Amino acid sequence: MTAHKNVSVIGLGPMGAVLARTLLHSGYKVTVWNRTAEKAAALVQEGAILAENPAAAVQASPVIITCLNNYAATRSVLETGSAAGDLHGRLFLELTTGTPQDARDAEAWANSLGAAYLDGALLATPRQIGKPDTPIFLAGSADAYQQGEAVLKVLGGNLMYMGTAVGAAAAWDLSLLSGLFGLMAGFLQGARIFESEKLPVHELGNMIQLIAPVLGEMVRHEGMVISNNDFGNPQSSLQTCAVSMALMVRQAKEAGITNEVPQFLHQLLDKGIKAGYGEEQLGALIKSMR
Questions:
Q1: 101 and 204 part of one domain
Q2: Which of 105, 154, 156, 190 lies at a CB distance of 3.0 to 4.6 Å from 134, suitable for a disulfide?
């Protein structure tokens, strides 16, 4: 087993355990550590090596992957014993979810210890790890990316290197999550509308999947509108969108269902209209959000 096939995984929650198992089944020698050692038992039975402490995990491999609750937990673990000092000359790959500032702080800390640092954001659930189309956003030095590319390809085939600005991966991750949760909030409101009319909710989910390219094109268009700062000539103005939201608020009252989602969106649209953007494109709402 060559050194570049040695990887240490620190943090064996639902995601970390899958990362370790995927690497193990792909021919890597995997050393693992977790604060609760019992979580490593199944992996050890499959061939992983359980490190006695974080320092031993760091010493075992040239590539260190961390996947813990937050960046503060990562740093706390790596500052246990001599683990942090042993990062010198190694690739430290952080796959914990965080903010762009978390990434900048982590890179500065890792570099001060002589480690190469790469920040990653997994756009996947544990069951999607290891698939050829699984996307992973990455940011950090180009050298660090080149060092980690082979290992990362095992975890997700759709690697997206976002450049040397180390906060970029987290920014992409949080921005897409914002879009996802916004969509899910709207879907759940739609599900309550369907339930109030005794319609099958799964058919709404099926329809959203079917017309996803159309929805994506709407988002793409508004992204260009904002980037170009050109909010004129709307096909559907803020005022028009506010009428739709008002209907959703009224429907919720008539059906006796929750109205938090349409009420919030109506208030947001109303704020933009009161600011004077009512006859501009929907993307103009960002001006009032600024």
A1: no
A2: 156
Task: Please tell me whether residues 267 and 145 are part of one structural domain.
Answer: no
Q: What is the reported pTM?
A: 0.89
Each residue's pLDDT tens digit, 257-286: 999 999 999 999 999 999 999 999 999 999
Alpha-carbon distance values, 233 to 225, 238, 281 (Å): 11, 12, 7
Write the pLDDT tens digit of every residue in 218-253: 999 999 999 999 999 998 899 999 999 999 999 999
From its phi and psi, is residue 218 left (phi > 0), alpha (psi between -120 and 50) or beta? alpha
Nearest to 143 by CA among 166, 177, 113: 166
Residue 5's closest CA among 116, 111, 154?
154
The total of other beta-carbon atoms located within 10 Å of residue 229's CB is 10
Q: Which domain holds residue 230?
A: 171-289
CATH of the domain at 36: 3.40.50.720
